[in-house]
């Protein structure tokens, strides 16, 4: 089951993947995520996954870690940025410092294990160079790569329009092959395959 937790303010959406393990994708940027989890009766989280290192997705990692004592998984190239809160995290756009979580696991070290919990990771660079998307059950969690009605920015540090185009077409192929019709984006509403038509208007 995928449960969407709305982001407040500039916080990203958060998604709870509930199955063999309980995994929180992108805790967002403030303590309200803790209230949302409480509302949903969540008493345990096994892992945090960040779709990328941006501040609005990752700066509440440490709050979740404190509460649930769980590690944070992020694509290998993004690890150093999350640890340092450097310009790639765009924390300065939000006028804040990023407090990193203490335990960070590079994705490559745990990717096989994640398959056992029903997650398949797709590398979808373009918004940042280590952006990932996740296939889970009937859905595709796309971070800031693909939204219901558009695509993420490619002009921020490590972004690339060429990579973003390739990533969108990878996602479209996967969605078609697997008959996936639910897009769970990093911001805004849940979308469907129409998202790919909208995406092409921007690329
Ligand atoms: Zn982002």
From TrEMBL:
Q: Carries keyword Ion transport?
A: no
Q: Which SMART domains match?
A: Lactamase_B (SM00849)
Question: What are the protein's GO molecular function terms?
Answer: hydrolase activity; metal ion binding
Q: Provide the Metallo-beta-lactamase domain boundaries.
A: 11-187
Q: Where does the source fall among the domains of life?
A: Archaea
Q: What are the entry keywords? A: Hydrolase, Metal-binding, Zinc
Q: Which SUPFAM superfamilies match?
A: Metallo-hydrolase/oxidoreductase
Cofactor(s) this protein cannot do without: Zn(2+)
The UniProt entry, under InterPro entries, shows: MBL_Glyoxalase_II (IPR051453), Metallo-B-lactamas (IPR001279), RibonucZ/Hydroxyglut_hydro (IPR036866)
Keyword Hydrolase listed: yes
Q: Which PANTHER family match?
A: HYDROXYACYLGLUTATHIONE HYDROLASE GLOC
Q: What is this protein called?
A: Beta-lactamase domain protein
